[in-house]
Amino acid sequence: MGIPKINVNFDFTTDTPRFWDNYWDFMNGIGRSAADPDTASPMLKKYQQILWSKELPNGEVMALKAGTGAKYLTWKDFRFGSDSITSSFRYKKNRSLLEQVQSCLPDYRRYMENYVRSSYTIGGEIIFPKRHGGINQTRGCNQLISDRWDRTLECIRKFYNGEESPLYQTLLADKAFFDLFVDFKGYIDFFFLQDCVSKDYTSVEFYIGNEDFNEYPFPQSVDQYTLWIEKTLEFVRLRNERIRKEVEGNYTE
DSSP class of residue 161? Predict the structure, then answer.
């Protein structure tokens, strides 16, 4: 079955109503939007539906249907929501570091806008089962994860190995979802996440720090923060390239 053509460079902030309205008023110029492409971008929903409507590692075909609200995308008894797997940690509790970053860059707004526009392409997005207390919500609220994708993926790796982690109970509640991919490699390959793990799929590549969940999750210096941004953008670029090759190799009108 072919894949309809998509543009991996499409910026989902451009079709999210009012995304850039008053963007730079947040925290005296640190920048943040009140709008969320994960719920408001029509093109993102379309691309998520296109990409993940395919054969699963367990042999079933996930044929996603578009809906609204909590039924953003559905298949069988599953309800899915879109989730950005990038983060720039622009929270009030990180204000001091963010102000340091701002003062060290020649053009902070241009730097951050490039990050936002690049990370809000399909390479920076994924789907998770949608429910109260689900993965999307919990990984952002859990202080040991703090919305970090590398730590989230490490929890998923451990889950497939039957190991405990800060997200174990959350992932267990969605065991039926993870069973669709059979194992960690199946999950990684299905979602084009190969650049997040080692070649043998036995370990996760951490952007900063290591797999110790007791380590402070946020960048602690300007150099560490810009390294995080750099590694995030490189991951998105590589994943977009993987997606582009998949789409072009299976393109259909």
Answer: T
Q: Are strands 3-4 and 251-252 parallel, antiparallel or unpaired?
A: parallel
Percent of the chain with pLDDT over 70: 98
User: What residues contact residue 122 under an 8 Å CB cut-off, 6+ apart?
Assistant: 6, 8, 10, 44, 47, 48, 51, 240, 243
User: Above 80 in pLDDT, residue 77?
Assistant: yes
Mean pLDDT, residues 148-172: 98
Report the SS3 class of residue 43. Answer: helix
- Sequence length of the chain is 253
Residue pair 139/152 in contact by the 8 Å Cβ criterion: yes
> Which residue do the tokens 């590549």 mark?
205
Residue type, position 199, single letter: K
33 touches 23 (CB < 8 A): yes
Task: Please tell me the predicted confidence (pLDDT) of residue 2.
Answer: 60
Q: Among 155, 148, 183, which residue's Cα sits nearest to residue 170?
A: 155
DSSP string, 168-236: HHHHHHTHHHHHTT-SHHHHHHHTT-GGGB-TTSSSBPPSSS-S-TTS--S--SHHHHHHHHHHHHHHH
Which pair of tokens denotes residue 23?
């963007």
**Amino acid at the residue 4:** P
Neighbours of 77 (CB within 10 A): 7
User: Which residues, 6 or more positions from 99, have their beta carbon under 8 angstroms from its beta carbon?
Assistant: 30
Which of 7, 75, 18 has the alpha carbon at shortest distance from 44?
Answer: 7
Q: How would you label 61-73 residue by residue, b for 16+ Cβ within 10 Å and e otherwise? A: ebebeeeeeeebb
Per DSSP bridges, beta strands 3-4 and 65-66 are unpaired
